[in-house]
Known about the structure:
Elements: H1 3-24, H2 58-80, H3 83-90, H4 92-126, H5 132-141, H6 151-169, H7 173-180, H8 188-210, E1 215-218, E2 221-224, H9 228-244, H10 256-259, H11 261-285, H12 291-319, H13 325-351, H14 359-382, H15 385-390
Antiparallel strand pairs: 1-2
Amino acid sequence: MSRTSISLGNLRAVVILIVLAFHSVLAYLGSSPDTVGLFNSPPYQWRAFPIIDRQRWFGFDLFCALQDVYLMSFMFFLSGLFVWPSLVRKGSWVFLYHRLVRLGLPFVLVVLLLMPVAHYPVYLVTAINPSIAAFWQSWLMLPFWPSGPPWFLWQLLALNIAAASVHQLAPRWGAFLGRLVSLAGTHPGRVFAGLVIASTLAYVPLAIAFTPWEWIQRGPFAVQLCRPLHYAVYFFAGLGVGAYGAENGLLASDGMLARRWAIWLAAAVAAFLLWITPTALIFEVRDAAPLGLQLIADLGFVLSCASSSFFFLALFLRFAQNRSRILDSLSYNAYGMFLIHYVFVVWLQYLLLDAQLFVFTKAAIVFSVTLLVSWTTSEALRRLLLGSRMFSVQG
């Protein structure tokens, strides 16, 4: 296994830890509303904050703000890395069949079966009648079917369908996109500039039109209105990097990106400050925020997202080139853990609501128990015949 492949595997393992940590601390944000509102009453704030604890810490807000800026975009980028080689190897139709099994089927099963279980504690917080029958009646009365974190899967599937369509109509397009990033090994700044320009065009107009926080949901399909095109940019950027070769260019283990990781760290910190400072001011004045301030915040988001993504790539390419049994296991089980962890997170946060514990203790319990249970459950499912196909790393 090449050093780049090992680095990407270790990165996958750490990304799932970050995802679990992000959801584990959502109940303890200092900026959360004081109350979550009734289960069946708009604006259904519990979709963003399922459980709100009385114990809070503002440091968790900073952690979640950073992850919200780059993490989902970065996951779309990583998901795109192996798409074009897989299309070339399998062909468009076989690739689509495998993606439907890999992404579509888990989305349907998790949303239909696990999301009601995950959201039952949310209902119990304000319920007059705590029975399962009353919960199910309230659930069916909702004008949508809450999907939780698996919203990522249907958007990723849509982008995979788009990539397969491009491959079917223009099979050389991937190689062309790969050539655009072929100089990345010696000039990663050029790829960074191209990514920032494309992301700005995709994100800023929609962020101005819809605000950076507005979501819509139709049935189980949730969309953050300002980000679909932005996510597409990152997915196809990953596709282009992968088309050129995961071991080459931007992802070369001894390339310029990896060697200049400290520069990307400085850029990530500066860009995050450029985003969070005007964003904090916008939160204070809400709709009265001037357009110029919104533009600065939106451009800060674009720069912070790209620089943080480049930093994490550089960090792992430079320092995570050795295999570890623990990280290997986490990497193999990352997808399964993503699918099932939300149930454990929400139930644990609910069960700890009345516990007289420090906020750090509560967050640590939620994270550690969720990690252990989702990890072991995913490993068990992956050993099953169907699970081995649905939960595999490459799909």
